[in-house]
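Hello again, I could really use a second opinion on something today. I've been staring at a protein lately and its backbone has me curious. You're getting the sequence in one-letter code plus the fold written as tokens. I'd be grateful if you could look everything over and explain what you see. No rush at all, and the record is pasted right below:
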Amino acid sequence: MQQSIDTWDTPALRHVRLGRLSRPLTDAIDRFLGRYAHQIESLVLNEYGSFSWPFLNISSGFWAQFTALRLLGLNGSTLKNERWSGWSVMPPPTHPCRYLLCRFYIPRENELAEVGRVVDDIRARWTWNDDVRLIVGHGRTGQYYVVKNVRGDQSIANMEKTVGILPEL
């Protein structure tokens, strides 16, 4: 017998990675996440290609609901999408969120240059508080770059390469 996601009991849930979901699952996922939102520390939504409709927008109550969230991860295509509401729905300065993860395909031969282009694309739209750092990376390789100051002109010089998103999560 297959259980519905609505009936899952996961009291220790802290880290969630979702992706490649079909439209009928979206409501069930929303209810499931809503039930555990107060304890989730990292939420990575891996939208599937151009079908980013399930995770395209962030509601005005998102940050009030996800009170423990320290890392939010989205595909680069969402962060660059002009219709994405996330740039106008910022975490308040007192919120514990400190990292926005931008997942992107980065070719190894031009890795640093590609990361610089991604940061440049996002920099113009960056409206989050200064305490939120940008992480750019390719999840398959486990290579990530933490950008210490996304608003600064020297973003490449201010990057720190890590293996794994963040050691503390």
